[in-house]
Design goal:
Strands 2, 4, 5, 6, 9, 10 and 11 form a 7-stranded mixed beta sheet that branches. This protein has a 4-stranded antiparallel beta sheet with strand order 1-3-8-7, with no helix packed on it. By secondary structure, the chain is mostly beta strands. β5 (about 45-50) and β6 (about 55-60) form a beta hairpin. The protein has strands at about 5, 10-15, 20-25, 35-40, 45-50, 55-60, 65-70, 75-80, 90-95, 110-115, 115-120.
């Protein structure tokens, strides 16, 4: 069974840091593009990053220079390091497996979602 399990969310004050984990099972991360999305209250899911099988990551303009992706191949886990957090970063963060090795959107068919983890940044 293909599954993504997220962890690491919580409450942090403005300027702080968090590291989110996306643990994959039932597939190998290196074969697929993995996206992070976030959803603020009353908003749709917003792309945060796209990580291709070759390890290249494209970041949304709003998080460039503050967020960074890393991977632990032995644990089949992807990490999202978030620094210099701002209240605007508040939302539920999801990792998602694209059906293939290239780009997908939140509305693409065959996307596998994690359960989401809440990130709250206070001013």
């Amino acid at each position: 069974q293909v599954q993504l399990v997220e962890s690491g969310g919580g409450l942090v004050q403005s300027g702080g840091s968090l590291r989110l984990s996306c643990a994959a099972s039932g597939f190998t991360l290196d074969y697929y593009t993995i996206n992070w999305f976030r959803q603020a209250p009353g908003k749709g899911r917003e792309p945060v990053s796209y990580t291709q099988p070759n390890g290249v990551t494209i970041y949304a303009d709003s998080v460039k220079g503050r967020f960074a992706i890393s991977r632990d191949n032995a644990k089949n886990t992807l990490y999202l390091q978030m620094n210099s957090l701002e209240p605007e970063d508040t939302g539920v963060y999801y990792c998602a497996k694209c059906p293939g090795d290239y780009y997908c959107s939140s509305s693409s068919r065959g996307v596998v979602w994690g359960q989401g983890t809440q990130v709250t940044v206070s001013s």
